[in-house]
Write the structure tokens for this entry.
Amino acid sequence: MGALFSPDSKFMQAMGRIGDLAVLNLLFLVSCIPLITVGAASAALYTVCFRMGTDREQGLVRSYFQAFRENFKQGTIVWLVLALFLAAGVLNTLLFYALEGMLHFLFLLTAVLLVLAVLMFSYAFPLMSQFSNDTRSTLKNSLFLSLGYLPRSLLVAALNVFPLMLALLDLNLFLQVGFLWIFLYFSSAAYLNSLLLKKVFAQYM
């Protein structure tokens, strides 16, 4: 039993990591409250997650806010562009889906564009956290890489949109597990995504 609770045991290391993710999740949610800061918060979240378990891992809170400040301008621009793209995709898909006749089938095209926007969103902020590029290059690379590694990209995107899809499909269940969103989900999803994307990014580092 003593070995289980030793600071060097796998169990205690796992508990420590869960604690880090809980703190990181709260930092992320608080940083997103103004909404316009979602981009900078997402880039900061991925910066910390990519460093976890490496020799670059430092103080969690300090690293987060340092990355938040460094990515604030570009993160805000990218977030606004992608948010506009996502909103247009959702509205147009719903609009064409509600129409009759030939126009109805245009919802398939707008749905594809919506999926592309989700894929770009899933790559843009991880890219921003690992590479220094201008906004146009970040958006372009997020599109090309997400399509180039599509099976992996779909898994990353699924982790990102899962809370929203659950809320749309079963709001009651979404609310019942609300503690997950508050204490752990977003940082855990970003951590898992960082593991999935490390192999993608490694050849471009």
